[in-house]
Write a structure and sequence with these properties.
The protein is α/β, with parallel strands linked by helices. The protein has 9 helices and 7 strands. α1 links the parallel β1 and β2. Bound molecules: 1,4-dihydronicotinamide adenine dinucleotide. 1,4-dihydronicotinamide adenine dinucleotide (NAI) binds next to α1, β2 and α7.
Length: about 240
């Protein structure tokens, strides 16, 4: 039986590429998204089911995971990909900007992991991969909220990796750099050209580059890679 993999925020961008790559690698993939129209369009494009719920809400995650487990099977691979930005310098940041990013990027990781962890422990197998960011690793002006959450998920993953290690559960992060998504393509061409010049490999990461790292960490035989952060950033920041 194919292992069941859930990808949050999976209906577009990096999450879509991860969902497709996991499907191609033989997993039974279920995407999650908050956006119903995007979810429908994604399923039409890929043939992958997409369940809609808000990962920032604990009870919605509990119900969502229960539905996936009843209809598809126990969640053995979880990819925490859903994320948002609400950028602004701290001296101008509204509490709402702070809270929204905390809830979607950080609370979601607790909400999802908490609802799959007991099952993974009981079955003695699990793979959890959380999408961090280069801006969580190095810090970025205008993103105190975002950088805080993306650094926090790395600490969270190390602690949970320690808890899951003796139970066959690995917990890792992937930290993308500038990635060729709609958001990045919306940047003015001359500004984007300047950004690309700063990347040692002189190009953006593709969504497939990020997905490749996730599939690698999700594999059964990646059983001793845990508590790690894999940087996929074109060399823009080297730890
Ligand atoms: P995106 O905005 O294209 O896609 C994110 C998806 O998450 C959307 O489909 C959205 O509807 C969904 N989503 C948002 N809030 C949600 C919620 N509360 N519940 C469920 N789904 C929700 O984003 P992108 O660019 O594909 O990013 C994916 C992840 O990669 C994010 O965590 C982001 O922070 C991270 N990342 C992206 C980089 C980039 O250059 N695009 C660079 C570094 C990290």
């Amino acid at each position: 039986m194919a292992r069941v993999a859930v990808v949050t925020g999976g209906a577009r961008g990096i999450g879509e590429a991860i969902s497709v790559a996991l499907k191609d690698a033989g997993y039974s993939v279920v995407a999650n998204d908050i956006n119903e129209d995007a979810a429908k369009a994604f399923t039409e494009r890929t043939g992958i089911p997409c369940y809609t719920w808000d990962v920032s809400d604990f009870e919605s995650c509990k119900a969502g995971v229960a539905k996936v487990e009843a209809e598809i099977g126990p969640v053995e691979v979880l990819v925490n990909n859903a994320g948002i930005t609400r950028d602004g310098f701290l001296h101008k940041m509204a509490p709402e900007q702070w809270d929204a990013v905390m809830k979607v990027n950080l609370y979601s990781v607790f909400n999802m992991c908490r609802n799959v962890m007991e099952g993974m422990r009981a079955r003695q197998f699990g793979r959890i991969v959380t999408i961090s960011s280069v801006n969580g690793v190095k810090g970025q002006a205008g993103q105190t909220n975002y950088s805080a959450t993306k650094a926090a998920v790395i600490g969270f993953s190390k602690a949970l990796a320690a808890e899951g290690a003796a139970k066959g559960i690995t917990v890792n992060c992937v930290a993308p750099g500038y990635t060729d998504t709609e958001m990045v393509r919306a940047i003015a061409p001359d500004v984007l050209k300047g950004i690309v010049e700063t990347v040692p490999v002189k190009k953006l990461c593709s969504v497939q580059d990020i997905a490749r790292a996730v599939v690698f960490l999700a594999a059964d035989d990646a059983s001793t890679i845990t508590g790690a952060t894999v940087n996929v950033n074109g060399g823009i920041y080297m730890q």
